Amino acid sequence: MNRLTIRARLTLLYTALFSAAGVVLLAVTYVLIERQLPMGIKVSSRNGADPAVEAVTTGTSSFGAMPQPGDEMVALVNEKVAEIRDSTLTTFFTQGGVTFLITLAVAAGFAWLIAGQALQPLQRITETAARISEDGRGLHQRIALNGPRDEVKRLADTFDEMLARLDHSFDGQRRFVANASHELRTPLALNRALVELAISRPAVSPDAQQLGEALLKVNERHEKLIEGLLMLADSETEITDRTPVDLADVARHVVDLTPQGGVKMSRYLDRAVCSGDPVLLERVAQNLIENAVRHNIPSGWVRVETSTVDGRARLTVTNTGPVVPSYDVETIFLPFRRLGRERSATRGLGLGLSIVRAVANAHGGKVTASPRPGGGLSVTFTA
Q1: 38-42, 56-60, 72-76: which range is least confident on average?
Q2: Element (H, E) at 188
Q3: Which of 141, 153, 376, 379 is 20 to 30 A (C-alpha) from 118?
Q4: Residue 367 to residues 11, 51, 195, 382: CA-CA distances in angstroms?
């Protein structure tokens, strides 16, 4: 019973109530008809007059008076009356039962429709929550349920208010990250210019030259961090302008520009056209390929594949590398998360795969990762 849906439970309840009412009505009708049918006849005498035959019933109807027949005739008539009585009751019970079952089936169908109509607002709430859960970006959606202000209407309105607050909160967070990143770009660019000017002077000492180069590296890391935060904020906004993009062309371009660093790079690029933002999709390919090269082993390899599966464009990047536990795979998509000593030792900000997932959500796609038995990962981006 616990596994039944609410609609099935309501249907069973409505059908049970109708069945109980039908059984009671059938039983009452059966008793009334049974009381109206005659039981037989008997011989009686009225005020010393000639004997007369009277019908014996359980109600008020009778055959009336008739001339006195013989005893054999009375027995024959009583037997015939009993047969007619039994046949009538049996016919009523059989036909009434069949009619009741047919009516019960029709009532069950109507109960299913009525239960579905009653639960339609709840179904609408469920569908809205499912859409928001699937794309992760639909907080702007609302149920906007119309109708009387009953319990379901209040539930839908409360759900809409919660979505509005969440949407406002997340939107404010994205704006803050974008604004802060933009504001930090200017001082970082100024710092880089001043340091480059200082170490480019002819009379600069070796120590100052070394210090300046170290500051430039730190400044470059901060600039990449700001760029990553900006990209993450931009990728979490709704994409309005979409153009056809072939992931094969994007991957080919990124592979040609990415330093391989002793890693063997192979490509299997079939046509994979999707609709989206070319800049964001190029950043996806860049992040996946750079991560595959960075988090690798000496003399390792990277394989880049593009294809179209079930009408969706797919980019898969597979690499050798350190062993990644399967229970830690999902955490690599969180911002500023890097796994293990090998990954922590590499130069990275921990934003690459977070940006990839944000772009995938923005394009209505998804990104998944699975560890290889010998080490490394296979990351698949679908748009």
Answers
A1: 56-60
A2: helix 151-199
A3: 141
A4: 42, 103, 40, 6
